[in-house]
Amino acid sequence: MKPAQPPFDAGFGVYVHWPFCQAKCPYCDFNSHVRRGGIDEARFVAAFAREIDHMASLAPARQVSSIFFGGGTPSLMKPETVGAILEAIGAHWSVTPDCEITLEANPTSVEAGRFAGYRAAGINRVSLGVQSLVEPDLKALGRLHSVGEALVAVSIAAKHFQRFSFDLIYARPGQTVADWREELIEALAHAPTHLSLYQLTIEPDTPFKALHEAGKLVIPDHDLARDLYEATQEICDKYGMPAYEVSNHARPGDECRHNLLYWRYGEYAGIGPGAHGRLFTERGRRALVTERSPEAWLDYVERDGHGIVGDETLSNENEADEFLLMGLRLREGIDPKRFALLKGKAFDARRIAALSEEGLIEPCNDGRLRVSREGFPVLDAIVADLAA
Predict the structure, then answer these.
(1) Do the Cβ atoms of 173 and 218 come closer than 8 Å?
(2) What are phi and psi of 383, to 5 degrees?
(3) CA-CA distance, 146 to 144, in Å (whole number)?
(4) Inside any domain, residue 267
(5) Sign of the alpha-carbon dihedral angle for 301, 307, 308, 309
(6) How far apart are alpha carbons 181 and 31 in whole angstroms?
(7) pLDDT digits (tens, 9 = 90+) for 50-98
(8) Could you report the per-residue pLDDT of 240-294, keeping only the tens digit for each?
């Protein structure tokens, strides 16, 4: 029987999913829903508390080092709702004194005005969904805020939180390398410690997918996308914010600790509609997923104490593949010994040699294995090659 706590422990975190948005962005495939009739936050708080209780029964005696409120748009929650959820987490697990507690926010003026309340509730880091500093592109992305509102929200966040970040999407329709360089340099002037920079991808079952297939939405081709990626690395390196993960840049020490927990293949509880978790129990590492529909999730939790609709005990091979897929996203790379422990065998030395010869991976002096800067644009292919 496996131990109830994982070897190579990368920490324990809690992810809380708030599934509601003011509007659905046309590029987004996240589990987010628009509800015009108002949200019964008290009912959701009670359900979150019940599901936290259930998850704690599966993974007791953990020490929480990070908490992340994602969505959806968590900044639509009242600060009191956030505080009540944090109290429920603290009632079931030990929370470290330096626990990173992040809340995703949209930079509208109404939500920015809540920042003081979130800070008082216990939030100590915010991540703002700015997405663009070009007015027409914001509209094209379906965002409800203006560039001016975004920059005001960023300045308010800086006053209330020592640690904050914001997101931008690049490789947008019609974007040139010169345009992106100018926009990114402006962004770095406003977010001096952390930026999440995502290349626009066309996701299934989104309005952008339909437009793209109809030829009404044209995104940069492979070569231009690669040039935009290279410009991103060059500028962020120059400004002291290198990539520590494929899409995330930070000054050393300001990395998002919660996301590092995912990429280092740590353990985390997923709370709320459509949340995913990885808990280590006597059965081994379990992949848990909850009901996506907010209303159905509420019914399940009120009836059963949780909204879990998927519960798979991962095989050693599944764990090894997940560990590889997550860990190679990081600039620090992975420990091959942990992969061998999960997989039951070491990497194929010939594959390592071939990928090294091509300059796609870099075996490090400390024994770790990492993807090179040249390899990151073809990361999926590298992972598939090593996992085979």
Answers:
(1) yes
(2) -60, -45
(3) 7
(4) no
(5) positive
(6) 32
(7) 999 999 999 999 999 999 999 999 999 999 999 999 999 999 999 999 9
(8) 999 999 999 999 999 999 999 999 999 999 999 999 999 999 999 999 999 999 9
What amino acid occupies position 118?
Y
State whether residue 294 is helix, strand or coil: helix
pLDDT one-digit tens code per residue, 288-325? 999 999 999 999 999 999 999 999 999 999 999 999 99
Count CA atoms within 13 Å of residue 134 on its CB side.
19
Cα-based angle 83, 25, 51 (whole degrees, multiple of 5): 35
Structural domain for 331, as ranges:
316-388
Q: Tell me what pLDDT residue 324 has.
A: 95
Q: Which of these three, 240, 262, 284, is where a domain ends? A: 262
Q: Is residue 2 part of a domain?
A: no
Task: Please report the pLDDT score of residue 73 as a whole number.
Answer: 93
Domain count, the chain: 2
- For every residue of 272-283, DSSP letters joined together read STT-EEEEEETT
CA 364 to chain centre: 27
End-to-end CA gap in the chain:
27
Cα angle 312, 329, 58 (rounded to 5 degrees) comes to 30
Calculate the average pLDDT of the chain: 93
